[in-house]
Amino acid sequence: MSHDVKFGGDWDKVVVDDLLTKRIQELSVEIAGVFNIVGMCRFDFIVKNDKIYYLEGNLVPSLASTGSFNYMLKAAGIDFNDFVADIIYSFEQRQNSNKLLVYSA
Q1: CA nearest neighbour of 60 among 86, 87, 78
Q2: What is the DSSP string of 35-71?
Q3: Fewer CB within 10 A of the terminal residue: the chain, N end or C end?
Q4: Are 37 and 49 in contact (CB under 8 A)?
């Protein structure tokens, strides 16, 4: 999203359904598992020359009516109240993980 779009400007809905999109979806699921994410998260990627670069994860994406996450819920036909209830349920049902990611310097 451009800065203008992010803060209320007009935007075009773009739906991409190809192998690259599927790979990004798969990577998102893998990353969510690595970080033991429960509930919601927005992952940011850049794609250049068919290479996918992970930038960051945002655990608290904007739920404002003009925010991208709200548009995604609407596009998926997901009711906001049901979504919040599902997040609460997910947290109640989660299992604690003792994952440790060791970095070598």
Answers
A1: 87
A2: TT--S--EEEEEEETTEEEEEEEESS---STTSHHHH
A3: C
A4: no
Residues 6+ apart with CB under 8 A from 2: 9
Residue listed under structure tokens 């994860």: 57
> How confident is residue 17, by pLDDT bands cut at 50, 70 and 90?
low
More confident residue, 95 or 57: 57
The per-residue pLDDT for range 40-93, each reduced to its tens digit, is: 788 888 888 888 999 999 887 677 777 777 777 888 898 888 888 888 888 787
Domain 12-93 top-level CATH class: alpha beta
Closest CA to 68 of 18, 24, 14: 14
